[in-house]
Q: What sequence folds into this?
């Protein structure tokens, strides 16, 4: 009997800029054995998640209508091949990142340092600065030379009479002129970068082509890809509502970061207090997307005060619109908000409606900048979590620690027993001399701030057994925008191998080796201990004689005895009291056995956390 084998699954994919080339083959291979139900990701993982959702949407529609071809996942699997294609002397992958005019020289300097060793990269950056910032270079060299001549004249200096002395002096003079040119170029680059980033939404690449005749840039290319995979025309963007009403329903969840609000956001948004400007969106999205957002905005209904506020602003020549509802929001908008990698990709500006006494009509618009989802959670494996799961949620995480000559088999790791994956992550901070390297120390600080929760979940029982790790070298993935064609092909193979590893583990017909049965057991075993530890203090608090009034009295209070906030109806009071009675008496009914003993380690905890929106 193999009726215990799962037929549906969820997927969550980690961010990693160009490392995302592993995902198309992974998703396509996995979809050959599973129906994808919930799909999530952050940063470049959101791109793969959106494309995967489009492919599953196409499959669902074809099966329902009984016509057409179920080729969405085949198109998705072909993405790495498309990215390897030659475009203007580089790969198509490189052509997707097109800098704005103000920051094009800076991008060329960074591009010159790609796919090389650190010492050579530093030399390429210095040479690129001198080459691409000629005004700063000439000014720096000229000022140094002028200062040298003036100081030499004032001090009565003269050129050495001997040939050797003249050559040495010439070399020294040339090196100093070069140093002056380099310093001038660095200062010019820094000043122009400051101005350019401020004028271009704090990013080099907007996501749209920056010159007529250029190939499609990232957002344009992704929009066309999603529409092609979903089997929809370009002017009818795929929306979250179409995914939700598909049969079976598809849940797509992406992570972004609201920098102005100091918090993470889960997309699509659930509120009705976001506003966009059409002119700002036109600089970041294709025209079809902007028109779809405007059409969705017209279908939303809002309060009189907020509607009047936007009407007043637009009467003065502005172009503000309410964000479409979650169902009307094109998926490409959420994907672009999630992959706004700092500095490389321009941030997305929206506006939040706030009720403020200082505002004349009680409502004010505050600008919110949305950046890369990986800043707050680069691997949101918690997206579709449940205490007792009904289908597996597979996580894919990336790591750039593979040696150049490592065999292909070392690229993919998936736990095969309940002891695998428990070892914490480790980042080398010490230098060769045994003392902390300041650059590594700073990187560890930033990495810990960004990833501590993700790393903790990766080694938690009930999580680690379903997270497949794909390793790659430092010359692959990451910020290697000009990645070699063979590297793209190798990383694509890694994605396919990772999916095969997952399939072999979770669809094993041997019950004792099956990963899904083991996962369900570990989660149930771990959850029992967590629930016991959580419920016991509830009973103690309910019966605490020192609390006046008691929690029971608070819940049952009526009329003037009841507190004014969030009051209960009579029916809710009765149903809720019955619920509390069951909860607080559970610990008394349980045997005095400690379910935490010998439970999976490290033991998780059940805690109230803010819901992301």
A:
């Amino acid at each position: 009997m193999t009726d215990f084998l799962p037929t549906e699954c969820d997927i969550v994919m980690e961010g990693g800029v160009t490392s995302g080339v592993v995902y198309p083959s992974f998703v396509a291979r996995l979809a050959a054995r599973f129906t994808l139900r919930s799909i999530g990701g952050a940063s470049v993982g959101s791109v793969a998640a959106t494309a995967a959702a489009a492919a599953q949407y196409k499959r669902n529609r074809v099966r329902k209508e009984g016509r057409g071809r179920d080729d969405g996942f085949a198109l998705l699997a072909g993405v790495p091949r498309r990215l390897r294609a030659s475009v203007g002397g580089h790969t198509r992958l490189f052509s997707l990142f097109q800098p704005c005019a103000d920051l094009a020289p800076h991008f060329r300097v960074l591009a010159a340092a790609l796919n090389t060793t650190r010492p050579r990269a530093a030399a390429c950056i210095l040479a690129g600065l001198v080459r691409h910032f000629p005004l700063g270079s000439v000014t720096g060299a000229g000022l140094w030379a002028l200062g040298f001549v003036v100081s030499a004249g004032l001090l009565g200096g003269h050129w050495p009479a001997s040939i050797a002395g003249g050559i040495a002096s010439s070399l020294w003079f040339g090196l100093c002129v070069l140093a002056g040119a380099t310093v001038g170029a660095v200062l010019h680059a820094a000043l122009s970068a400051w101005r350019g980033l401020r004028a271009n939404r704090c990013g080099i690449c907007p996501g749209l082509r920056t010159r007529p005749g250029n190939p499609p840039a990232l957002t344009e290319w992704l929009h066309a890809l999603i529409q092609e995979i979903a089997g929809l025309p370009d002017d009818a963007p795929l929306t979250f509502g179409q995914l939700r009403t598909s049969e079976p329903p598809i849940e797509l969840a992406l992570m972004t970061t609201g920098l102005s609000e100091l918090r993470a956001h889960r997309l699509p948004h659930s509120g009705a207090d976001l506003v966009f400007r059409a002119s700002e969106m036109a600089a970041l999205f294709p025209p079809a997307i902007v028109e779809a957002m405007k059409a969705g905005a017209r279908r939303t209904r809002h309060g009189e005060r907020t509607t009047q506020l936007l009407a007043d602003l637009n009467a003065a020549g502005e172009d503000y619109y309410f964000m479409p509802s979650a169902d009307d929001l094109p998926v490409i908008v959420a994907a672009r908000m999630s992959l706004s990698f700092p500095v490389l990709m321009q941030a997305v500006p929206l506006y939040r409606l706030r009720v403020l006494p200082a505002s004349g009509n009680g409502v004010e618009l505050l600008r919110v900048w949305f950046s890369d989802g990986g800043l707050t959670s680069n691997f949101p494996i918690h997206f579709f979590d449940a205490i007792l799961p009904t289908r597996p949620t597979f996580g894919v995480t990336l790591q750039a620690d593979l040696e150049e000559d490592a065999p292909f088999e070392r690229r993919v790791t998936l736990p095969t027993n309940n002891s695998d994956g428990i070892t914490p992550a480790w980042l080398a901070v010490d230098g060769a001399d045994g003392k902390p390297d300041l650059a590594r120390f700073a990187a560890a600080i930033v990495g810990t701030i960004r990833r501590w929760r993700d790393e903790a979940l990766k080694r938690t029982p009930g999580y680690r057994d379903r997270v497949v790790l794909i390793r790659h070298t430092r010359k692959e993935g990451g910020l290697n925008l000009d990645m070699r064609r063979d590297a793209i092909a190798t990383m694509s193979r890694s994605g396919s191998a990772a999916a095969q590893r997952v399939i072999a583990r979770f669809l094993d017909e041997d019950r004792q080796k099956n990963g899904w049965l083991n996962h369900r057991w570990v989660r149930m075993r771990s959850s029992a201990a967590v629930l016991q530890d959580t419920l016991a203090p509830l009973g103690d608090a309910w019966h605490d004689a020192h609390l006046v009034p008691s929690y029971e009295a608070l819940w049952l209070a009526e009329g003037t005895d009841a507190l004014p906030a969030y009051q209960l109806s009579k029916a809710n009071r009765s149903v809720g009291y019955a619920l509390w009675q069951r909860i607080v008496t559970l610990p008394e009914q349980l045997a005095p056995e400690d379910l935490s003993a010998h439970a999976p380690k490290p033991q998780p905890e059940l805690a109230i956390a803010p819901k992301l929106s």
